[in-house]
Amino acid sequence: MYVAVKGGERAIEASWRLLDEARRGDTRVPELSVAQIREQMRLAVARVMAEGSVYDEELAALAIKQAAGDLVEAIFLLRAYRTTLPRFGYTEPVETENMVVERRISATFKDVPGGQVLGATYDYTQRLLDFALLAEGDDAAGHAPRASREAPPEEPMPRVLALLDKEGLIEQETRSPEAREPGDLSREPLAFPADRTVRLQNLARGDEGFLLAMGYATQRGYSHTHPFAGEIRFGSVSVEMVLDELDEAVEIGEIELTECQMINQFAGAKDVPPKFTQGYGLSFGHAERKAMAMALVDRALRAEELGETLASPTQDIEFMLSHSDNVEASGFVQHLKLPHYVDFQAELELVRRLRAEHEQGVDADAQNEEAA
Amino acid sequence: MNAPDSLQTSNATVTSHETQAAAGYNFAYLDEQTKRMLRRALLKAVAVPGYQVPFASREMPLPYGWGTGGIQVTAAIIGANDTLKVIDQGSDDTTNAVNIRRFFARTTGVATTRHTREASIIQTRHRIPETPLTEKQILVYQVPMPEPLFRLEPRVAECKKLHALSDYGLISVELYEDIVQHGSIATTYDYPVTVNGRYLTSPSPIPKFDNPKLHMNAALQLFGAGRERRIYAIPPYTPVKSLDFDDHPFEVQRWEHACALCGSRESFLDEMIVDDAGKRMFVCSDSDYCHERRANDDAIDDANVDTIDAHATTEPATHAGEHA
Fold first, then answer.
1. Element (H, E) at A138
2. Which residues of B are catalytic?
3. Which of B9, B59, B270 sits opposite A345 (nearest CB)?
């Protein structure tokens, strides 16, 4: 009977084998390849890269395969790998204004320089299950002619929010001269108070579900920030890094990014005239929901610096940043699966003792009443 | 990183056949820069007993909340000549302890043991071994919530101020309210302590039964909280006081029973429900201590029928320690 509390090495090893089998599923169905996941589940890959904090489509796809599609588990796998990688240095800031845009929309102006580019989006699909996909081989079915892909727009696409700058209507994201070099959250502990660079790093790898719920809460009055989607763009940008040997910035690759700039009302303060303010969201890959939610949360977290009333958890920097990471949250919630019988035994002993004392007290009261 | 545990189920110490780190990974998994960062934090922690030192916790291949802080501390201090023991709830055989021991056997190739006396590093979750530790040993605790004030003040920034000012009134009020409501202090584990007369410190969720062992312990005690990114320490022979009041002195749990296996009346006991009629038996939570006592003393017949009520067991497992 005593052995019941022993986990047993053999049990763990048997569990691995069962896991492998469960992941593979029915062997009569062909095995999913990493390349297939990478190509055909690009949005899952994007999320795993963003929250896993590594831009590597192949490894993200591998993690998704290994995790049997559990994206939070896949994110954890990628993070645990990432932490073993050496840090070579930091790239130059990416210039999203020069993005090769695949999609770009603004909800604040009917037309903008560079135009609105719808690109590939689920936004205007009617959410009807497409049973044609159910049939094997949708390529063969050929039910839709291939979209004609126009050459990427030649004209420059300045940021929509920059256009409002001329009137001074909206604050611009400029680097203040006295700003310190941004920290690196993956190398330094999160400390409070946290400045905006730290907050944005935290949100960028924060859980999409958490950001979505919190961003949604800001829209429902828990820190009302009157947002407008100033601009959402998705496309690829080049990444440059200064190499010591060459002493100049060299393009080392391209990554896909989704960027969102929210425009929010700001009533102004004693020494600041009313104007619009910004919330900012950025994510690896195509991830509009994440980028938009992040922008809402970013703006809510600026309450203190803008002198707004702090009335909601969505404005509480420590609350938000401490709970946004799904690798941390998932681990700690699920650690409750670990044995706690020592602590539980200690609590059992206490509750039994308190109950015994309570009973004695009740008996004593009853006796006193009888006596009276 | 799935590798079989090199520790066999016999009681003997088994030296791993591997003599170095797993292929493709550095010794003890972490890179040397990270270990250096950890060692700096550890040195600071030892220099300021009980103070929580922030450190840049890394993602580990085990989940946060499953011992990542303890694992990082162990990885930073372990050397090729160390002998490692890992326990969870006092036992070497709980799944998570097995998993962590396997991790280090795989990534360092060091010898592992179940015997408290033979270990140079003991990583633990929720217990301090019953066998007294020596100056040659280091005890590494896995800590879920390093901040002793977190239930009273969840904001880390605010807690920092309270520590800086030694402003620990909140916790005294909490203990006082316990006494008013229940007649005694209702904290049974993770019972707060004052280290070296200065910092209020969480002993990690050990039962308060273990708190006296923190005081003037010969071993170095290191605490790692991975998710919360804090390291702290109790150096050897440091005074550690469990909070109490003059008229309500600190007390530890006591059992009406002795261990059903070894007969100990001094150790922390786990309660087990052994059948669907609610029969219970009590056995030592520290499995090595229990084993050792039984090896030393076969005459345990007199003590092993301790019962909680009429339904209690009369058949203590005589082959405890073997696999089913």
1. helix A138-141
2. 50, 259, 262, 284, 290
3. B270
Contact partners, residue B25, CB within 8 Å, separation at least 6: A84, B107
Residue A291's pLDDT is 97
Q: Which helix (H) or strand (E) holds A228?
A: strand A227-243
A354 vs B140, residue with greater confidence: B140
**Cβ atoms of residues A223 and A316 within 8 Å:** no
Instruction: Find the angle CA(B120)-CA(B123)-CA(B125) to the nearest 5 degrees.
Output: 150
Q: What is the mean pLDDT of residues B154-162?
A: 93
Which chain A residues are closer than 8 Å to B304 by Cβ? none
As a whole number of Å, the CA-based R_g of chain A is 27
Residue A153 is predicted with a pLDDT of 57
* Higher local confidence (pLDDT), A352 or B41: B41
Please state whether beta strands B220-225 and B138-142 pair in parallel, antiparallel, or not at all (unpaired). Answer: parallel
**In whole angstroms, what is the distance from residue B133 CA to residue A317 CA?**
43
Is the CB of A80 less than 8 angstroms away from the CB of B253? no
Tokens of B193: 């302590």
The dihedral through the CA atoms of B149, B152, B157, B162 has a sign that is: negative
- Interface pTM, i.e. ipTM: 0.79
pLDDT, tens only, A96-143: 999 999 999 999 888 888 888 999 999 988 899 988 888 866 565 455
Is the per-residue pLDDT at B142 higher than 80?
yes
pLDDT at B312: 36
Count of residues for chain B? 324
The Cα–Cα gap between B6 and A135 comes to 50
Cβ neighbours of B9 in A, within 8 Å: 9
Cross-chain residue pair A13–B4, CB shorter than 8 Å: yes
In this structure, are strands B138-142 and B111-112 parallel, antiparallel, or unpaired?
unpaired
Range A176-203 average pLDDT: 87
Nearest-angstrom CA–CA distance, B25 and B8 = 24
Q: What are φ and ψ of residue B193, in 5° steps?
A: -130, 160
In angstroms, the CA B247 to CA B225 distance is: 34
Average pLDDT over residues B28-44: 94
- Cα–Cα distance between B242 and B175 in angstroms, integer? 12
> What angle do the packed helices A9-24 and B95-108 form, to 10 degrees?
90
